[in-house]
Amino acid sequence: MENERKVAYFSMEIGIEEGMPTYSGGLGILAGDTILSAADMKVPMVAVTLLHRKGYFFQKLGPDGWQTEEPAEWVVEYYAKEQPSRVEVTIAGRTVHIRAWRYEVHGISGYKIPIYFLDTDLAENAPEDRGLTDYLYGHGGNPGYRLSQEIVLGIGGVRMLRALGHTEIERFHMNEGHASLLTLELLAEQMRAAKRTELTEEDLVEVREKCVFTTHTPVAAGHDKFPMDLMHKILGEHVAMKNPDIFCCDDKLNMTYLALNLSHYVNGVAKKHGEVSQHMFASYVIDSITNGVHAARWVCPQLADLYDKHVPGWREDNFSLRYAVSIPQEQFAEAKASAKRELIEYVNRLANIGMDGDVLTLGFARRATSYKRADLVFTDPKQLARISREVGKIQIIYGGKAHPNDTEGKELIKRIVAAAGQLKNDLKIVYLPNYDMALAKLLVAGVDVWLNTPQPPMEASGTSGMKAALNGVPSLSILDGWWIEGCIEGITGWAIGENHRRHNEVGGDWTQDAASLYDKLAKVADLYYHNKHHFYRVMTIAVAMNGSFFNTQRMMQQYVLKAYFR
Questions:
Q1: Burial 331-347 (b: 16+ CB within 10 A, else e)
Q2: Would you put residue 52 in left (φ > 0), alpha (ψ -120 to 50) or beta?
Q3: What is the pLDDT along the chain (566 residues), one digit of tens a residue?
Q4: What does the domain layout of the chain look like in residue ranges?
Q5: CA nearest neighbour of 32 among 401, 369, 463, 321
Q6: In sequence order, what DSSP letters do the residues of 371-404 get, joined into one string?
Q7: How far is CA 194 from CA 168, 220, 263, in A?
Q8: Which of 367, 331, 533, 531 is closest to 454 using CA atoms?
């Protein structure tokens, strides 16, 4: 069974089940969706991640919107089974013992893919090492903790796979650079097999052939870099260090460059992001495979029943969702109304805000960070209030966590909460705390329009709008990431900043983007209230054109053809 596995998928976070807070947002949810589709398609994959016993935090919002965090405790044994194997890595000269917990993902036909969650909470470890896998993306901004985690994931992950019998893996897929130290372990394996003590070009070629790297962001914070003195202290000496061109950039251990240098296939996560990444790393060949979402996981029950009736087999063949355009509009409208009612009831119970199911409802939920510009819609509050009063009433539902160390992200949430108070006489706005997988499912199905306003070209892909499209929710979005590919104006949704984005310009003028947003929002509101037939037509076409394509089934097919078994 173990030797059947040919692809090892490494990700610092994997969001696979609602009760397991082992993810922070889009990257982890994408990893979960990827594995689900691999299981559906019987791709011989095994996945590796860290356990994160403290979870990605439980978010609380004060009356002013200021975020505080608490550990998200969960019971590992309820979800995963401890494995008997143990492996070791050396961190700062100490031996750190690692165990693995096995969680199985079941595909449509019953094919299973194991995910191994690595854990250092063992009695034989030093106290400071027992918590190394507790906190996702480090603890308190400590780079030594972060680098130690990446040693456990990359080097420890390869060793654990070998200990568990996965000896015939042909491809190691690094989902972002956090796992790129796995290349050092593969080099060590290659040298041992060749009985060499010095690194050769042949070793580098052999390892490159085994490795695939997906880069997910142009944001600098997404590319881990560590000072050389910290690298020597934490990682110790490695034979690859005699060849600093492999891992070093600007005299730092650069996890992105390590992955770039030792991968035979590198890709961005949307066509535009591929171009941006190619510009960032000009001396490398960077392809693109546009992200997707797992259709069956994200379609709400009301619409899933409708698709079963009118598009049988859509789970096995996501592309068949193109036939959603033939679903009778009254049945589609009834299913959508049911999903919206479920969301509005949830919001009103939680926030006591009195939202109305008949009012045009916008959704905005993703990681709270400055480049996402979640407050762009409040650039001119009077204009927003005027649209709600004169064109048609609007209500907005927000959600999303700021990283504990991201003060700007926390201030962003505060600004949105303050704007909600200032505009309460003209439109209802709520910021829901502790955004997670369960809440995401309610939001992407229950709102009428999905709002997305990132600062181009910082949105590498964006998958929340893809989830919305599967549920018949069109996007009102800046032309960046996947939306450049998915937007057909007025047919699958609406573009913000259309005139100056079509020519790949980098935008910096919030005023111009806000003016475009208000113009389009007024048109959307007018359509919603005065031409419901056309509005529902846009909804069904969003499913047929975007839901049928921007899914991980199509994405996984591309990885299989381009990267795994070429």
A1: ebbebbebbbebbbebb
A2: left
A3: 677 899 999 999 999 999 999 999 889 999 999 999 999 999 999 999 999 999 899 999 999 999 999 999 899 999 999 999 999 999 999 999 999 999 999 999 899 999 999 999 999 999 999 999 999 987 667 899 999 999 999 999 999 999 999 999 999 999 999 999 999 999 999 999 999 888 899 999 999 999 999 999 887 777 889 998 999 899 988 767 777 777 766 788 899 999 999 999 999 999 999 999 999 999 999 999 999 999 999 999 999 999 999 999 999 999 999 999 999 999 999 999 999 999 999 999 999 999 999 999 999 999 999 999 999 999 999 999 999 999 999 999 999 999 998 999 999 999 999 999 999 999 999 999 999 999 999 999 999 999 999 999 889 999 999 999 999 999 999 999 999 999 999 999 999 987 544 444 555 568 899 999 999 999 999 999 999 999 999 999 999 999 999 999 999 999 999 999 97
A4: 2-292+555-564, 295-549
A5: 463
A6: GG-TTGGGSSHHHHHHHHHHT--EEEEEE-PPPT
A7: 17, 38, 20
A8: 367
Contact criterion met (CB below 8 Å) for 464 and 372: no
Give the C-alpha separation, 382 to 47, whole Å. 50
CATH dotted code for 2-292+555-564: 3.40.50.2000
Q: Are 465 and 450 in contact (CB under 8 A)?
A: yes
Are the folds of 2-292+555-564 and 295-549 the same?
Answer: yes
Whether 47 and 116 have beta carbons less than 8 Å apart is answered as yes
Fold of 295-549: Rossmann fold (3.40.50)
What amino acid is encoded at 464 in this protein?
Answer: S
Structure tokens at 432: 């829901």
- Residue where the block lists tokens 């143990």: 86
- The span from the CA of 243 to the CA of 238, in Å, is 10
Tokens matching residue 126: 């030093």
How many residues are present in the chain?
Answer: 566
Whether the Cβ atoms of residue 329 and residue 535 lie closer than 8 Å to each other: no
What value, to the nearest 5°, has the Cα angle with vertex 471 and ends 539 and 532? 30
- State whether residue 51 is helix, strand or coil: coil
Select from 236, 276, 273, 274 the least CA-distant residue to 253: 236
pTM recorded for the entire structure:
0.96
Residue pair 398/416 in contact by the 8 Å Cβ criterion:
yes
Q: State the DSSP code for 507.
A: P
Yes or no: say if 186 and 210 are a contact pair by the CB < 8 Å rule. Answer: yes
| Cα–Cα dist 246/278, whole Å | 19
Q: Is 159 left (phi over 0), alpha (psi -120 to 50) or beta?
A: alpha
Q: Distance (Å, rounded) from C-alpha 83 to C-alpha 116? A: 9
Within its chain, how far is the Cα of 327 from the centroid?
A: 30
d(CA 417, CA 566): 50
**360, 395 Cβ separation under 8 angstroms:** yes
